[in-house]
Amino acid sequence: MARLLLGVSGGIAAYKALETTRLAVRHGHAVRVIQTEASIRFVGTASFEAITGAQVLTSEFEPDPLRGSYPGEPLPERSPISHLALVERADVYLIAPASANTIAKLTGGHADNLLTAAALAAPCPVAVAPAMNERMYVHPATQANLEALKARGVTIVPPGEGELASHGEHGVGRLPDPAELLAVTEALLAARRGSWAGLRVLVTAGGTREPIDSVRYMGNRSSGRMGFALASEAAMRGAAVTLVAANTGLAPPPGTRVIEVGTAAELAQACDEEFDVCDVLLMAAAVADFRPASPAHDKLKKEAGVPAPIELEPTEDVLSGLGARKRSDQILVGFAAEHGEGAVSYGLEKLERKHLDVLVVNDISKPGVGFDSDENEVTIVSADGTQRSVPRAGKDLIARAVLDDVERLRAERGTDDRGEGSDGASGAGTRSAARV
Ligand SMILES: Cc1cc2nc3c(=O)[nH]c(=O)nc-3n(C[C@H](O)[C@H](O)[C@H](O)COP(=O)(O)O)c2cc1C
How many angstroms separate the alpha carbon of residue 216 from the centre of ligand 1? Predict the structure, then answer.
């Protein structure tokens, strides 16, 4: 199942977008539809809404009752900006039919309606299916526009030849059949899914617990959701994922191998055993810095009164240990939960000290994000000096942003020699490559 965003512009072939939507839903995809004003004169919103089960949006100023989510997803807590949220969550953005006018706007970088604004903000693969009269299609302006979009990594789905809408005309310009449009869309999804094929990814998640006695422990509030989202996204991209899970109680993401651990020492041992064979380590677990030096074997009895002060000793610094022995072809990603101002500058210092490639810093003084929450708001700092702020979003979207950064670093360093994946049509790009 994928999230498909369908942009429908104004042309006779808009009716085929209905069947494309129906097929996509039947294939199990969650579909949201954006229509241009002109397209509503050809096909109304009601049929799309009935098929997708979600409101069709046209204007960037219109509130989205689903707050940028796709059918079947929980409603986000806050109302986002639609042209950013819809496309940010999308796995692929298909614009079909794409009118000559919309194609020209996309080429010029216009953002004067929801369809074009979303295209400009799309971090996902974008496919454009032109449909128009042959004279419009072969016009040098349209051809130059399509070439420009293709050069930016946009997939152009070539129109077919045959009878055209205008009476008695025959030629090139017909929108491909819905099944073909869906096949191109699914080829783009498969290319994105396979983009980490052959990579071995080690993820740690959750919070360690350090025994005080046989039932009590020192722990932390980490739920494991961030690590699980990372594992899930890496598996979705085709990586072989090992997930070291500390006290999470969460269902393992499909296609991942899970090693359950309890204490910092157990987590350190699991990482020690798995690290050398991994290409990417995502260290999202909250590992205790201290543990009781001499935990009681039995339960401390209440009747015995308040126990003597618990003496603490440091635990293994797992990240520093692995950072010190990291090979140049490995990428090590750390996470830092810091409090208040200075969180990022502290993070930069930690990045260097621990020999990390990427550090994901989240300021846990901000309410509603981080520990025990479905959402997060982070700054991703990389060893190459780049810093990227990811505004408050679900942990699945944060995971995407982190993995995109790892992908960028690997490509920069030349450690990613597996190519860009096949497109199934002309000019497909990877998730981060396509720019409208
Ligand atoms: C009956 C009719 C059919 C049209 N068919 C097409 C078409 O197939 N392709 C196209 O590019 N434009 C077609 N147009 C022109 C577009 O609707 C027009 O350029 C409009 O501004 C497109 O707006 P949009 O790109 O915002 O959807 C047609 C117009 C009319 C009145």
Answer: 69
Checking DSSP bridges between strand 387-394 and strand 375-382, what pairing results, if any? antiparallel
pLDDT digits (tens, 9 = 90+) for 212-254: 999 999 999 899 999 999 999 999 899 999 999 999 989 888 8
Asked whether residue 34 is assigned to any structural domain, the reply reads: yes
What are the pLDDT digits (tens) for 331-387? 999 998 877 778 888 888 889 999 999 999 987 777 666 666 777 889 999 998 889
**Residue 14: in which H helix or E strand, if any?**
helix 14-26
* pLDDT for residue 124 is more than 50: yes
CA of 90 to the centre of ligand 1 (A): 26
Question: For 286-319, how does the pLDDT look when each residue is reduced to its tens digit (9 = 90+)?
Answer: 999 999 999 999 999 999 899 899 999 999 999 9
Q: What is the rounded average pLDDT of the residues 187-192? A: 87
Q: Taking the model in full, what pTM does it have?
A: 0.70
Amino acid at position 393, single letter: A
Q: Is 7 close to ligand 1, i.e. is its CB under 6 Å away?
A: no
Are 188 and 201 in the same domain? no
Gyration radius of the chain over CA positions: 25
Q: Which ligand 1 atom is at minimum distance from the Cα of 165?
A: 8
Closest residue by Cα to atom 16, ligand 1, is: 10
Cβ of residue 248 lying under 6 Å from some atom of ligand 1: no
Sheet order of strands, 256-261 included: 256-261, 240-246, 200-206, 280-283, 331-338, 358-363, 375-382, 387-394
Q: What is the DSSP-derived secondary structure letter of residue 316?
A: -
Q: Has 220 been annotated as catalytic? A: yes
Asked, for residue 27, whether it belongs to a domain, the answer is: yes
Q: How many domains does the chain have?
A: 2
421 is a domain residue: no
Is the minimum distance from the CB of 145 to ligand 1 under 6 angstroms? no
Is there a domain that residue 36 lies in? yes
Give the distance (Å) from ligand 1 centre to CA of residue 31: 24
Whole-number Å distance, alpha carbon 9 to ligand 1 midpoint, is 8
What is the domain range of residue 284?
A: 197-411
Measured distance CA(395)–CA(6) in Å, rounded: 24
Q: Which helix (H) or strand (E) holds 242?
A: strand 240-246
Phi, psi dihedral angles at 3 (to 5 degrees):
-100, 115
